[in-house]
Protein 1
Amino acid sequence: MTEPSTPEAIITFCGWLRELVGRRRENTAIVHYPVARRASVKDVIEALGVPHTEVGRLIANNEEIDFGYLLAPGDSLTVAPLTPPVDVTIPTLLRPQPLPAARFLIDHNVAKLAARLRMAGFDTLFNPEWHDEELAGECGRQQRILLTRDLQLLKRKAVEHGHLVREEQPTRQLAEILHFYGIAAQVRPFGRCLRCNTVLHEVAKADILHHLEPLTKKYYHSFRRCPGCGRIYWAGSHHAKMAQLLAELARYQPLPY
Ligand SMILES: [Zn+2]
């Protein structure tokens, strides 16, 4: 029996993942990792600060591997970030279970993103009472992308599709998500109820006349109603906000990945 020539694995982090590693150590690009016991790549990179959800490719000794790979002394590992546009409907080596569509689940630390995603027409669940355990569980059960600013939450195994929201301002967060998942062309203004996420239906003015204020009755003619909660939407109600939102989205400069 001979000892391995080096007890370390060399781990190279690419792109913006270096910022996540950098929260913990100075040399952010290359980490000499002492392999004291056999641990999965997922556990090792998460111990170094990078949630598995942010990783797009893993290469060990020139071969593409998945999160279950057991790191060995002498290994040379490259960790590359997910880069936009990320299509969650296509299976990959790291995420073999694709999602039926880009649908979202919102953590309370990015709560204001929920109404904006719904305003843009995307299926978005948000329940302020759900904490980490429920969020991680719902993410898998509901086949959704979990959006959060909580690194620890994204490290949970139940979270297969998740994204660390890096922008701080809610409209910029929406722009970040549309860019990251390449779904800007799928924006449907006022496709869903801002309050309850239900798809809105066109409704005849005559059917809702008794719900309208006199000025709304006078000036607006096209209406939508939420079959879930009954809320009525019309051109005057949120359109100025929507126009402002679309203008801000058009000006957005994407983050580096
Ligand atoms: Zn509703």
Protein 2
Amino acid sequence: MFCPNCMTNNDENAAVCKKCGRNFQTGVTPKENKEPMSASFAIPVGRTGLSIIAGYLGLLSILPPFAPISLIVSIVALKQLKKNPGKLGKGRAVFGLAMGIIGTIILLFILLISLGAIS
Ligand SMILES: [Zn+2]
């Protein structure tokens, strides 16, 4: 039996794939090796707490006062992820970092304008 899911050749009378566990009768694979990006972002499983916080702060960075907090938390979260390569959540931390940088630049502009530095 040739498995169309993981491209593995199995025994001729095999009921399930030896590699991915796909059932040849029903065509159902019990557990996908890779979860979709959207689902991995929505379900916070196996992620560090800080990267989850960084993700939410990234969203809050639309409001400028949150941006520097998001920036700092995201940097700490990324450092934590480097120490624990098994942990997930890099996408959230990077998102928080990017939003934090953009928000901080906007915040600095607002401050400079209000101080009269830019006319
Ligand atoms: Zn397979």
